[in-house]
Structure formats: structure tokens, C-alpha cells
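thread: overnight batch results

M.L. [08:02]
morning all. the overnight job finished for the chain we discussed friday. pasting input first so we're all looking at the same thing
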Amino acid sequence: MQELLANIKSDARFEQCSVSASISEDGIVTLEGSADSWRHVVDIGHLAASFPGVVNVVNHLSAEGVRIEKSDNTQRIREARKRGVIASADVVIVGAGISGCGIARELSKYDMRVIVVERNADVSEEATKANNGDIHPGHKAKPGTLKAKLNVRGNELYDKWQEELGFELVRCGQVNVAYSEEDMRGLEKIYHDGIANDVPGVRMLTKEELLKMEPEVPGDPMGGLVAPTMGVVEPFQVCVALAENAAENGVEFMLSTELLDIQVMEDGRFQAVTEKGILDAAYIIDCAGIHADEVAQMVNDEFYTLHARRGGIAIFDKRVTGPYHHAMSAMPRKKDAESKGGGYARTPEGNILVGPSAVEIPDKEDKSMEESDFDYAYDRGKSIYPELDRRDVIAMYAGIRPADYKEDFIIQMSGKVHGFIHVAGIQSPGLASAPAIAEMVEGILKEDMEASGRTVSVREDYKPKRRPQVQFRRLSHEEQDALIRENPKYGHIICRCEQITEGEILDVLHSPVVPTTVDAIKRRTRAGMGRCQGGFCQPRVVEILARELDKDWTQINLKGRGAYILERRSR
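M.L. [08:03]
and the structure it wrote out:
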């Protein structure tokens, strides 16, 4: 540790920092002390993680001028314990993002009781909904990492997921463009990483090959790189599909239910204390995203720290069609730290999407879209498509990547607490890796259950296929007429921008995982995702929710507890 501390002290960036470090027998470095900025807290964590023999980093450094508030849940835990055990399960999954829902769906095939606990009012509320939907090929993942392995495997498995679950997957391929010798050297490194990771079809392009593939590339490119297995999805659509199929197969979703504490019992079982009461479980799977390290602390298994990395994305109106068939990116002149660079892509619905940025922030809940986030995302899009006009941006949003200091996925049975499974650090390419993550966790759980003498059998009534939702706008006129004759509600347009009908909204309100907020309806149907961003349709959506859920209009909120749209009746 003396050598590590000497390296920190010899770095001019950290001369105002006061740092101490210790390392455990299993290679976990713990940092204590203070730094003069949050950026330096993160940089020191990365420096420690790169030190030979370090398995991971617990970073307790504070930063000057940064105060991180921690909730005192003592009273809430006490009240929750009074409610007693409200359910027993074989498995409790904490978090209903893409990892939690993917694992839940994978486990739903077995004869076991699975409960998913999610603090938000809907699935896909955190990092999953706030990314660019890229199903990365795997050529930008560091060779030898778990990320690289699961990225390539996950990309391969997406076709099966799409066929069974009915979401949209567009295999557009990805092209990176080089404008200088330095760019070409950067692409050659990415190419060799792709070869090392066994990425199918990745290859370098000459200038002539590039322009034949994408003739509208601006300027005077020198060459490029293509990765044909790149895909794009609507990430929230995938997550909802997974959750609905899991629920159809018996998985229980406890939404708007915050996990407050976990107690490890003498018999090895867990009592997961939620705000609604206690869940008794044999296994707990920690898929809590940016808060996964805090859940791990509940069982006294702190061996990593997650730091929040915010990414901002901008979405353009569908009328901006763009010239490209592939997802496109020019090698960045200026690249945010730890970002893949970002670029231009078109969503399955046809919207151009640019970004994301990558900014280290101390507040895990700070999803604000700063001007710098927008400027970075917008500039990355314009670097490959100069005709973009910021006046055509219809929405901006930011999400939080849950990064650990080794910049890799953490997926393993706890070495301290048997039955507790870590699924942490799932940042990009987490969406692309999701099927492989679910497959890996299934294997860990199944192997452990069978080792303890339990037979793990597939249910005879398991239904791997989900019936896709009706998309009225994509039907022929004849199909639309037939549907309206069957149910006139399909003839009532609620969202004019996206052509979403009342029939479609009613369909999702009777789905296995019921949406209860305006944003949940938006993610399932696209009502409110058009140019007016709900300016016309939101009142109608509120009306339908209130009617179908038997609530007053003032009880309907935007995205969960406290986010009410209407304060009171005026008449």
C-alpha cells in the first residue's frame, strides 16, 4: 500500500488530497480521507483499482464542498418490522431494471416462487429507460473482462429474446469513421479488441468501402470500421416485455416498494425488510443498479463502491430522417472520460438519437440534463450528420451509469453471505449483455440449489412466448377497420403525434404488470413520445387512468410517489 500511496502523492493532481489506504487479504482496497474535488475522488479510485493485485476498491473518500445526504431509515425499518412477514419466497430480486427483469424471466421457467421488489412505480425506471438502446457488438469492451464475454454472448441471444417476447430489434450494424491517421490507429485498436472478443464480422474499411456503404459520410474520411451485429431496441420496451412474460409465468412484482434493510437469519435465510413488510427468502439477488453497493452493505458484504456517471441524450423529431442505414460515429476529437464516445443512431421507431455524455457526479439521484450534457450529445451527432438542427430536438434526458472502479461487471455469489448474489456495476454494455447476465445468474442459482440437494425442475406450464401488443399505427387500413369493428376503442385516437389509440392504452392496463402512471403508459404505448411530448394527450391519459384504476384525477401522477399532475379540482 505504501507504493500506491506514493503514486497518489506524487501525482500533481492530488497534492491537496489527504488519503490513506488499506488492503484486505482478498485484494480489496479501502480508501479513507479527503480530496479537493469529486473528480479527484473518482480518479484516485481508478488509480487504486489499476494497482497490481487489487480486486476492487471501496472508496470512502469525501470531497471538499460535496455533502452526500444519507437517509436514516431507523424509524421506517421499525414500522415495517411491526407488519411482520408478508410473503415467503425462494428468491427475492431487488430492482426491476433490465438485469432484474431479465433474471426474473429466466427463473420463471422453474418451479420456485420469485418476488421482484422495486422502489419505483414501474419497471425500467432508472438506467434501463435512460440509455440509447444500443445492443453493442462487443468490439469496444476490454478483452478478458466479464463485460466483453457477456456483451458478445448477450448480443447473440437477443434474437431469441426478440422472437419469444415480441419487442422490436433492428440489426442496423455500426460504422465508425476515421478522418486522420490518429483516428485510424484508434479504430485499429478497436478492431483488434473485436477480434480478441470474437465479435462476428468486425472489419476495417477502406475509404472506398466506407463511402460505398454510407455515401453521405461528410468531409474527407480516411476509412472506417464496421460491426454488423450492432442492434438497436427501445430499452424500456424490452424490460416491460421481460416483466410481463415473467409475471405471466408466476413472478410477483412489488412496485412502489422500497427495500429498507436485510437481516441474515441463523438458519441462513434472509428477511428483506421493505416498507410494506418483511419478505422471507432463501436467496436474494442484488440488481439495485446505482444503489447495489448500498444493498450489499445491508448484509455486511462491502467489497466495491459504485460511483454515479451521468449520461445525457437528445431525441429528434421523426421528420428528421437522416441519411444513414447504420448507427454512425466519428472518432471523437474530445471524448468524455469513460465514454464510448457516443454518436448518431436511429431508434426502432425512427427517431434520431444522439449522445450520450459521461460525467462523474456525487449525487446518485441527479438525473438533471445540464447544458454541457446536451452540447456534448448534440456535437457528437453533428460530427457525423452536420445537418442536424437543435430546433428539431423534442426531448432530452439523462440517466445514471452504476460504475465500479474496476470498470467491469460484478456477478457472483457472495463470498461472505451464502445465498446473496451480486449483480452490480451493470453499466454499458449492460443492455446488450442482459440475456447473458440472466443466463449466468440462472446458472449460479441453479448450481447452488442443486448442490444443496434441491431438485430444480422446469414447470410444465412455462410459457416462453409473450403475445406482442397491438400497434394500431402499423396495421394496414383493412386490419385497422377489422380491429375497430371488433372494439371501437381502437378507433379513438388519444395521441395524435404517435397515433396511439384508446384501445392500446386499455390493452396495457390489463397486462400482467399494470402501469399506474402517465410515464408508464408512455413507455408501453408511446402516448406522449411525439413532438408535443404529451401536450395534447396527457389529459386524456390521466382521464383513462383515473377511470380504469377507479381513482380521482388528482390521484394520478406522472411517474410515482409525489409526482402529482393535478393539485385539486377547480370545478
